[in-house]
Specification:
The protein has one domain: RelE-like (YaeB-like fold). 30% of the residues lie in helices and 26% in strands. The chain contains 3 helices and 5 strands, in the order βαααββββ. A hairpin with a 4-residue loop joins strand 3 and strand 4. Helix 1 crosses helix 2 and helix 2 packs across helix 3. It is elongated. The protein starts with a strand and ends with a strand.
Length: 106
């Protein structure tokens, strides 16, 4: 999948284990880099195990990935028009662009 970042600082944390460790601690940094590898390896959101992410029922197109018991990564569908079916539900096998918005306490 294609990943974008809401800020340069967040991108730096996601691309450098040293910066991620300084910002979030060793355990979160380790899980963060593993989840980013999973996201990059997948062609679409449908290729990921459904246990890896949760789609928000309240905020259309918002996705949460659990990193640890206390930390989550918040993402959003990063298509100009969110891929939906005729009923308005997201079509996971057409989502191939995500934006990482935050990493923080759940």
């Amino acid at each position: 999948m294609e990943l974008a970042f809401i800020s340069r600082e967040l991108r730096d944390s996601c691309q450098n284990i040293t910066i991620a460790t300084l910002n979030y601690g060793e355990l979160v940094a380790k899980h963060l880099l593993a989840r980013l590898s999973d996201l990059r390896a997948a062609d679409t959101l449908a290729d990921l195990p459904s246990t890896l992410f949760e789609i928000s029922p309240d905020h259309f197109g918002e996705i949460t990935v659990r990193l640890t018991e206390k930390y989550n990564m918040a993402l959003s569908v990063n298509h100009s028009k969110k891929p939906t079916d005729p009923h308005g539900a997201l079509v996971l096998n057409r989502i191939y662009r995500l934006k990482i918005n935050t990493i923080g306490v759940a």
